[in-house]
Amino acid sequence: MSRRRVFGIGAAGVTAVGAGAIAARSLPQEPPVANAFSNSGPFPFYGEHQAGIVTPAQDRLHFVAFDVTTDKRAELADLLQEWTAAAARLTQGKEAGAFGAVGGAAEAAPDDTGEALGLPASGLTLTIGFGASLFDERFGLAGKRPAALLDLPKFPGEQLIPEISGGDICVQACAHDPQVAVHAIRNLARIGFGRVSVRWSQLGFGRTSSTSRAQVTPRNLMGFKDGTDNMKLEDAALLRDQLWAAPQDGAAWMAGGSYLVTRKIRMTIETWDRTSLREQEDIFGRDKGEGAPVGKKNEFDPVDLAAMKPDAHVRLAHPSSNGGAHLLRRGYNYVDGSDGLGRLDAGLFFIAYQRDPREQFVPVQMSLARNDSLNEYIKHVSSGLFACPPGVRDAGDYWGRTLFA
Is residue 167 packed enough to be buried (19+ CB in 10 Å), middle (13-18) or exposed (0-12)? Predict the structure, then answer.
């Protein structure tokens, strides 16, 4: 699908669970076409911004956070160049290395692990980000840590697990085929052996956000349409103001990039499933079927916040309740088996991009953590904040080059 085609498509939205749900305007819109982006073709890898941010959200996710195990700056820079070359190939449906899974010498390990042989690109995008811990004394980068890459405050009620939080580097792989997404992360981990190690990773399915008006609004595991008012790739002025970092923000190397917040939000779905429909709808501030706001008939009717309960999720998360702050969300459902106590370990892997988390995610999540009636049914168990640099301009560029320049 061409860039012109992507930017010319028309109408949908998204609002809901966890820290977030936020966006521009609720305008009357024509119904979008279901699965408008279920094509298996490739998205461009090179560009001003990284793919996988405003790219129409794919159906599957494999997200990974790495710890850097080398203490040599040159080795880290070399790895980023190797990763970029592999990512450029993988996102176009090619194998990770020049000789692929079977084209090299039989006595040597293959250049690709091979489990995606015969599969198309499946809309794969790979997006990289750098955590605050990368900006310590190891690589001489302390002076380049952006002020916006802060240590997140402790929010009321969160129960974070350190082993599945943070990380030096993250990579987000999104695709329409889970095997393609897993294959990409597996090969980046293989290439990074001896220089990075996997800290934690998360699989996701069933996107819980739409990032284009051509996409229908999806549902989260609580059964509600999620993120009706999400920012969209068609909102150019809003994205410029709320999503993309600018040179005047204080970290020149981040210009054209964005800040990524991840939160693993476990849902106590067994308790939720025994809650009355009326209470469920009061908690969200929307009806469960159509997704219409309180007192309205259609999903995209203008929201009347005053008609909602004071602790309704939509009311607390809405931009007008947060000084105009918006987030671009592209989260995913997850089910990680059971907890050994007869309950599913399930919920939302929340992903949100923004220009400055100090002005966007932090105040929104603080309001939700203190007042949201949904908190009775959710628990934040992991957290991450990463600075995602601008896009790779051409084959001579690489992920993070502006940081190391």
Answer: buried
How far is it, in rounded angstroms, from Cα 51 to Cα 60? 15
For the stretch 251-292, pLDDT in tens is 999 999 999 999 999 999 999 999 999 999 999 999 999 999
Give the DSSP letter string of 291-358: -PBTT-SSTTSPP-GGGS-TT-HHHHHSGGGTTT---EE--EEEEEEE-SSSSEEEEEEEEEEES-TT
How many angstroms separate the CA atoms of 214 and 234, rounded? 10
> Is the per-residue pLDDT at 13 higher than 70?
no
Cα 20 to Cα 187, 316, 327: the distances in Å are 32, 9, 7
Residue 237, CB half-sphere, CA atoms under 13 Å: how many?
Answer: 2
Q: Quick one: average pLDDT of 222-246?
A: 95
Q: What is the pLDDT of residues 310-342, one digit of tens each?
A: 999 999 999 999 999 999 999 999 999 999 999
Distance of CA 75 to the CA centre of its chain: 28
3-state SS class at 171: strand
Contact assessment for residue 323 and residue 362, using Cβ atoms and an 8 Å cutoff: no
